[in-house]
Amino acid sequence: MADVFHLHLTKDQLAGARIALLPGDPGRVPRIAEALPGERQELAWQREFRTWLVHGPGGAVAVTSTGIGGPSTAIAVEELAQLGVDTFIRVGTTGAIQAHIAVGDVVITTGAVRLDGASTHYAPLEYPAVSDHTVTQALIESARATGVPFHTGITASSDTFYPGQERYGTFSGYVIRRFQGSAEEWRKLRVLNYEMESATLFVVASALGLRAGCVAGVLGNRTLAERVDEAAARPAEPNAISIAAGAVARLLTEYAVRNTVE
User: Fold this and answer.
1) Which of 7, 111, 153, 260 has its CA at a distance of 20 to 30 angstroms from the CA of residue 194?
2) The predicted structure's pLDDT at residue 226
3) Residues 48, 79, 166, 195: which is the catalytic one?
């Protein structure tokens, strides 16, 4: 019987994994697992939560999809933490809102604007949504090593894809007053991009004493066009995955050193 309700996993199945990579899309799970060295196996697939485990030279690493948005992300982090995971890296895609960010680049998020609701169940709005320094540094070092263009900074993390990100090409064509003009406001405040999970991930991790980071490939730049140019965006996902894989190698080395000292 599974130890945790939603993920359908047991602690034994995770084989001591302390790091989890968190894509939103279940279809991205095998592609991320294949970027990590070692033997791979699929452990479970329940609803939006699909988990593969990679048994590599530095230890086991889990790859678990969270689905879209904060509530399901919070479930994944909660249940993986119950099974022994303490370090989380979101590996996603994003839309840039600063003109200097090119499609195919990656954004490494240092902090998130809390446009979600799930994080408020863990900490009040005054509590910051910030990434873990060590995890973020591992992502930055990996990005430098790969040569992929990257940007570090603040992400607007919205519970909704349409009104919360001020998109008007919708069924109603209406955005409530709270979000009218919000994209330009975030742009002027030097926010880099929109996505939908980092605020929840960072707050939940910090509140529970865990570590989290986020890397996302840029599918489009909304200062240029709303629609995604699929050909131009093709490198975005593999670039983010490559950086995440390099960060995992660095973090596994950190764990090995820590264990030796202890």
Assistant:
1) 7
2) 86
3) 79
